[in-house]
Amino acid sequence: MMSKAWCGVVVLAAAAVLTAQGGSVRTARQATRQCAKGEECVSLRVCRPLQDIIAKGGPTAEQTVRAALCGGGGGRDLRVCCPEAGGSTRPVFFPTPTPPKVNGEDLLPKGTKCGQTINERVVHGDNAPLYAYAWMALLGYQDAANPEWHCGGALINDRYILTAAHCVHRNFTNSLGQVVAVRLGELNTATDPDCPSANGHGCAPSPQNFVPEEIIVHQTFNARGPVSDDIALIRLNKKAVLGQSVHPICVPPAGLNVPDFLGPRDATVAGWGATETKPSSDILQVADIPFANKTICETFYPRQLVEEQVCFGGRGKKDSCFGDSGGPIFQTDKFLPRFTVLGIVSRGLPACGIPGAPAVYTNVAHYRKWITDNLKP
């Protein structure tokens, strides 16, 4: 049994908590509530369940007392809603505090957890090696059981695909329908499993298939210029199983300067889109293409570009093309062997591979905050 002296100490302790930092009691008093059925508004001194909570202490004790206030003044006069008042030992339950919002930055892999590859060198306009670009994603349309692959994307953590808004926005996908499938860990869509004979790493696991749980399109997509803010996220219906054939790419820091990051190097674009001989490729294709100065790029897209776009291409006939949309263009850090996504394939001229003509990409570094703001566990 609790002694009167100990009870008084607990009540005074609770009052001290509620009156700390001036004005708290006034706020608490204004927030008093009507007691629910089965509860009675009584002095805190005679409510055993709350006395027990206060005695145990902890960060939620003050919040629990505040939630139960039903009248009274400060000090010994606090009154609370108490079930079976007068010494009940039955537990009292209060709403669980809302957990703090998750910081999206914490959901992006960093260091060796992103951008890793078994290949130190990239291929010039050829079939991609097995396991080389494990972040590549295929977006499927029409029939989930037998999808038509028309866009690409990049895995940025085990639950999200980064892609182009025009690949998922209904105004741009009328002829294709909705995105109904996402595939990771693919190299050759015509074979399962993929077993390149010259690889030396053995066959890859079968690709992983998903359906979109949520599609998030940038709020000002296509509003500031033709296909501007062309960026979207796809939340997968389950977590991807990460490994050698499925691995996220690194997202650049906000404000990354693309030409400084590249220096004299080209960037690499990859996709299963159109080639010079056929409308799509079964095997993932990669090509190295140069950064294109905005001044040169604007001669092909006059008064159409916004600051958040970047251009690549214009050397020979190497280019991204139809079906590559949404896929990433990327390169390694100068000093670390990990790949960072620099851009998203967005738009180009009506014909692909025109010598001297670059294509337009979404500059991902401008959207890091937008990306992290829209991630959830």
UniProtKB/TrEMBL annotation:
Alphabetical keyword list: Disulfide bond, Glycoprotein, Hydrolase, Protease, Secreted, Serine protease, Signal
EC number(s) stated in the UniProt entry for this protein: 3.4.21.-
SUPFAM superfamilies reported in the protein's UniProt record: Trypsin-like serine proteases
GO cellular component, one term: extracellular region
Molecular function in Gene Ontology: serine-type endopeptidase activity
Record-annotated Peptidase S1 domain positions: 122-376
Superkingdom in the source lineage: Eukaryota
Organism from which the protein derives: Eriocheir sinensis (Chinese mitten crab)
UniProt-listed CDD domains: Tryp_SPc
Domain notes: The clip domain consists of 35-55 residues which are 'knitted' together usually by 3 conserved disulfide bonds forming a clip-like compact structure.
Protein name per the record: CLIP domain-containing serine protease
Signal peptide from the UniProt entry: 1-22
Alphabetical GO biological process terms: proteolysis
UniProt-annotated location(s): Secreted
Family: Belongs to the peptidase S1 family. CLIP subfamily.
InterPro entries named among the record's database cross-references: CLIP, Peptidase_S1_PA, Peptidase_S1_PA_chymotrypsin, Peptidase_S1A, Ser/Thr_Proteases_Immune/Dev, Trypsin_dom, TRYPSIN_HIS, TRYPSIN_SER
Chief localization: secreted
